[in-house]
Amino acid sequence: MLKHFLLVTSIIMSSHVIAESPVKIENLETSLDCINDQVEIVQGRNGEYYIEAFFFDMDATIDGTLALSQKKSCLMNYNLKVAPGYRLEFIDFSVDANYELSNSGSVRLTVSHRVENAPSVRTTVSKRAANGDPLAGDINDHTGTIKANQLGHSSQQCGASIPLKTSLYAQARMPSTDRGQITSVTLDEGVSSSGFDIARVRCVPCS
């Protein structure tokens, strides 16, 4: 009886998870400075779903003691698996990071996304104290949207598995005259309460 109860409970809970999570990440492959890091679907504001990365070594930081430039790169390949009974409506990409500048320092962050055969979505954000940017702040920008009708027929279907590729490049630089100061661009877990925000995903029930 107890085993039967536990089995029924497990089935109910599994059905509940599927019902509340219309998408998930499958077949994740990471390389370069983010090898073994994680990409997940996180439920956020107003019931929206987000693709978020949890990095542990995507922090380009220099203080002038060893080097005057540091770069971090990440390549992620994964599938966005839509639950049966749902289909993708759109993926709304974004950039999410923190930065700090020395008096003459600069940071650069480039994020690129490729979804199946749709045009790539790419953005570069630069911050430089000499250009009047604040010495510290957030990088939080919208980079572009891919709609389901831009994808192939199979990716528009209910329960589709949609291939995505995301690449990130972060660089911090400062001159030797700024030794003792810090310049950094940080994507690591802890930048926000959830992780690095890659995109917002909307799925709708199949009619």
What can you tell me about this protein's structure?
This protein is mainly beta. The chain has one domain (23-205). Helix content is 9%, strand content 54%. Strands 2, 3, 4, 6, 9, 11 and 12 form a seven-stranded antiparallel β-sheet that branches. The two termini are 39 Å apart.
SSE diagram, text form:
Elements: H1 2-20, E1 23-32, E2 38-43, E3 49-54, E4 59-62, E5 69-82, E6 86-100, E7 106-115, E8 121-128, E9 136-147, E10 161-173, E11 183-186, E12 196-205
Antiparallel strand pairs: 1-5, 2-3, 3-12, 4-11, 5-10, 6-9, 6-11, 6-12, 7-8, 7-10
Labels describing this entry:
207 residues, mainly beta, seven-stranded antiparallel sheet, five-stranded antiparallel sheet, 1 helix, 9% helix, disordered N terminus
